[in-house]
Amino acid sequence: MRWRPEATGRAAFFALLASQFAATTGFLFVMPFMPLYVESLGVESAGDAAAWAGVLNAATAVTMALTAPLWGRVADRFGPKAMLLRATFAGAVVVGLMGFVTSPEQLLWLRLLQGCLTGTVAAATLLASETAPAGRGGSRLGTLQTVIFAAAGFGPFVGGAFADVFGLRESFFVTAGLLALSSMLVLAFVGDVKPERSEEKDEAREGSGIPWRGLVPVLLALFVVQTSITSVAPALPGFVATLVGGAQERIASLSGSILGAGALAAALGSFVGGKVAARVGPKVVILAALAFSALAFLPQAAVGGPIELGALRVVASFFLGAVVPVANLAIKEAVPPERQGTAFGVAASVTSVAFGVGPLGGGLLAAHFGFGAPFLVPAFLLGGAALVFALAPRARARAVRVFKAALASVMR
């Protein structure tokens, strides 16, 4: 089986970007007030509400991790556009129903269902990858991830403000509307890549499998990066409080500013990483980004003030943001076209596990070892992932060639 792209151009790609901005904004629109919504459903204790919120987030991550490879295999057969429409339509219905629940148990069942049926990022990544013109895969994946990071910062900010003014339940209906808009943009303006049967023998087709051994370092990088990004959030307000001496009126604003600046830096890193990877190769960029982000994480636990912390978070987030689209480009280049849906599905599964492990691990580290621990441990994880890449023969050889070429150009 090989892939036959339908008519897709710059306008279709812009429509895909707009659809993903709407979808990501929608999914994160309801995140800031999830504990408050649980309290409104009858959970009286703020601590119990926070625990429920953690369970609800983990439930979606777990079911998405289990089902993402399955949806990837379906995408290999029917094309990624169908999977993107499935994820956005299903998300609109399921999240809309969350606005009508009357108990946290009902909300939990819907969150489990959301994880089973959604997963827009993996489908959009595959679609952008397969419809990119020759030589533009890295640039397009970087641009897509830039938009997703920007929406990830925009959604919680706007969602929290909306909930304060119009109410908690109404926010779920806005999310449903944004997801419906996303699906309409995809349906109307975005092309597809569809499977086309070739005349090759079945044995030859079966021989083009997925080189999992070579992809392990890439999947490890994705897991460590997403874990590092999400592990800081539970500890950040408490850590900021220790840095400002308990000035409660500044904690929320400072924490929000640090998170927002980090999201913008990650968006910029995604764009730059995609551009650079097109010239020097994805594995070199991943290796460098992992190493530099580890160095930026290392001193964060010992900062003396929020300005220092914010500056280091911006640097670390820039390099973390560069890894995600470049890792997706590495998957695209390593996997045969007829198996890329499966490979991206596994990558989405790894990312979902990281989204569940990160906040849980960060919270546990802060509770047992202090607020600095969630900033220190990712430095060692990122450094270990960089070491794995450095020991990979192809990445090492490529890095040496790039270094020699750069040195030769300087010596001229």
Automatic annotation (TrEMBL):
It holds the Pfam family MFS_1. Keywords: Cell membrane, Membrane, Transmembrane, Transmembrane helix, Transport. PROSITE patterns: MFS (PS50850). Coiled coil: none annotated. SUPFAM superfamilies: MFS general substrate transporter (SSF103473). It is a multi-pass membrane protein. One of its GO terms (molecular function) is transmembrane transporter activity. The keyword Zinc does not apply. It is found in: Cell membrane. Its main location: membrane. The keyword Nucleotide-binding does not apply. Residues 12-396 form the Major facilitator superfamily (MFS) profile domain. The chain crosses the membrane at residues 12-37, 49-71, 83-102, 108-129, 141-166, 172-193, 214-239, 251-272, 284-303, 309-331, 343-365, 371-392. One of its GO terms (cellular component) is plasma membrane. This is MFS transporter. It comes from Rubrobacter radiotolerans (Arthrobacter radiotolerans).
